[in-house]
Amino acid sequence: MFDACFIVPVYNHEHAIGAVLAGLLPHGLRCILVDDGSGPGCAAELRRLAALHPQQVVLVPHALNQGKGGAVMSGFRKAAELGYSHALQVDADGQHNLDDVPAFLAKARARPHALVVGCPVYDESVPKGRLYGRYATHIWVWINTLSLQIRDSMCGFRVYPLAPVLALIERRALGRRMNFDIEILVRLHWDGVDMVNLPTRVGYPSDGVSHFRLWLDNALISRLHATLFCGMLLRSPRLLARKLGRTGSRA
Hints:
The structure is a single chain. By secondary structure, the protein is α/β, with parallel strands linked by helices. It has a single domain (4-250), classed as Spore Coat Polysaccharide Biosynthesis Protein SpsA, Chain A (Alpha-Beta Complex), CATH 3.90.550. It is 48% helix and 17% strand. The protein has 8 helices and 7 strands, in the order βαβαβαβαβαβααβα. It has helices at 17-24, 40-52, 68-81, 101-110, 128-145, 162-171, 180-190, 214-250, and strands at 4-10, 31-36, 57-62, 86-89, 115-122, 158-161, 195-202. A 7-stranded mixed sheet has the order 3-2-1-4-6-5-7, with helices on both faces. α1 (17-24) links the parallel β1 (4-10) and β2. α3 (68-81) packs across α6.
């Protein structure tokens, strides 16, 4: 069975979320907007959008900000409660090319047990510091998975199969902020979930608002890489056996 919805974590993106929603709704999927403790202006805009599209939009409010990971996990649980098998996550700031939604859904429908991950193709708006920092994270992810299967672990445009995701978040406390996107991919890879990479154009961002906190989020991500490295060492025999098995099957 393949039945997908959208999940959009929102924190004070009142100037961009209307356009993002307008780009999503024509694709015919229900949209779960998670208000992650936004200020009054954004909260009012989200309530307005939900009231304007009552059949297509589900609003999940957080009284306090929980971070991107906390918001996405609330979206996962609501999607499962509503009976969906898959969730396509996009960011609320307008950076993703929503014309690529059909390609992501088609790939997920063809590979329903895999996680479809956006592989960014950047325009000139990308901050160079963020771009170089991503490469450092890519290297750590390749080390911590003993694999090159995850091309980009920080893009928030991806289709999740909900069954393995819910199993993971019920047994493991994941990072709730900007470290979430990285950690969930590595741990799902460890669990044997296949990754499918799709290129997609990315810009930074349409409303000029970024919630990446340079020192705190970089510290959280650095600590995550160290934690995952220790986890990789414990799992390395199994990861290497899986890698050799795949290599042998292609020979």
